[in-house]
Amino acid sequence: MLSVNGVNLYYEQEGSGRPLLLVHGNGEDHTIFDKIIPLLKTQFAVYAIDSRGHGKSSEVKTFDYQSMADDLVAFISVLGLDKPMLYGFSDGGILGILIASQHPDLLSRMVISGANVTPDGIRKGWLRLFKFIYRLTKEPKMRMMLEQPNISAGQLAEIAIPTLVVAGSHDMIAREHTEYIASHIHGCRLKILAGEGHGSYVVHSAKLYPIILEACE
Fold it and tell me: Percentages helix, strand, coil for the chain, rounded to the nearest 5?
């Protein structure tokens, strides 16, 4: 557990070598990476983190992508990690974009998958479903997803590190939106995984291992 910005962040660290942060999506926690960590820890010092309000980290009443990104920046600083790499899934990818655009020298490389930079990047059917769920539940995490992020093309252009953007061919993020993100990050590579959904290749899966390994070489 690490105290940053008034919250306690739970994390697990395994392996040694270059530091690699793994950041989960909305409503998840570090355990989604259970199949890939045993592979990654042979190459990297892996830090699997629960974002605020998720998993074993501190509970919060409201959610904001910027606060969550600031937590990760503080996490890196407190632990003294030297230019870590970051893999972020869905909301974790949004946090990676915010960090890399606002702190261009903090990370060394980044892989993001299933991320969006505006709520309308979510396919319309999924967006309608999430709005319906929010009307029923008033879930704060869902509200954040419906109102945020609002990242501009100019902010994407501030990202100066090698970046790989990944998405499934059947992702809930519209393909043209994923392509938009990749096209506005200088030198960014884009990889669309045929037959995969939003998290089918991420959650309790090792399919990302060769992709992350290649991107971090």
Answer: 35, 20, 40
Enter the DSSP assignment of 122.
Answer: B
- 191 occurs within a structural domain: yes
Q: Write out the two tokens for 173.
A: 């993020």
> Is 80 exceeded by the pLDDT of residue 52?
yes
E strands of the chain, at which residues?
A: 2-4, 7-9, 11-14, 18-23, 44-49, 85-89, 109-113, 163-168, 189-193
Domain count, the chain: 1
What pLDDT does residue 217 have? 75
User: Could you report the per-residue pLDDT of 145-187, keeping only the tens digit for each?
Assistant: 999 999 999 999 999 999 999 999 999 999 999 999 999 999 9
Domain span at residue 156 reads: 2-118+151-215
**Could you tell me if 19 and 44 are in contact, meaning their C-beta atoms sit under 8 angstroms apart?**
yes
Coil, helix or strand at residue 101: helix
Q: 28 CB contacts (<8 Å, ≥6 apart)?
A: 54, 55, 89, 203
Q: In terms of pLDDT, which residue wins out, 113 or 217? A: 113
